[in-house]
TrEMBL record:
Residues 7-93 form the Acylphosphatase-like domain. Belongs to the acylphosphatase family. Gene3D superfamilies: 3.30.70.100. It catalyses: an acyl phosphate + H2O = a carboxylate + phosphate + H(+). The lineage of its organism: Archaea, Methanobacteriati, Methanobacteriota, Stenosarchaea group, Halobacteria. PROSITE patterns: ACYLPHOSPHATASE_2 (PS00151), ACYLPHOSPHATASE_3 (PS51160). It is an enzyme of class 3 (hydrolase). The keyword Cell membrane does not apply. This is acylphosphatase.
Amino acid sequence: MSDDRVRAHVHVTGRVQGVYYRASTRDAARARDVDGWVKNLDDGRVEAVFEGPEDAVEEMVEWCHTGSEAADVEDVAVEYEGPEQESGFRVRW
């Protein structure tokens, strides 16, 4: 089963801090059974890793373009990497 897992490493730019973006990302990822993490960066961006079945990971990448209701997303940069066997989804500090 681990052979069909993919990993997307994303950086989200815009008004994405202080607008429940991380918590909303966590909830959306858990609803799709996607593993990984999300955190704020010092430069105002949000960084996240999504790992799981390709269709679910792609749904999360697409979700990032809108994000939480209060967010104003300007850009989503995505790099695909080899799976690292993330387990669960959490907000990092």
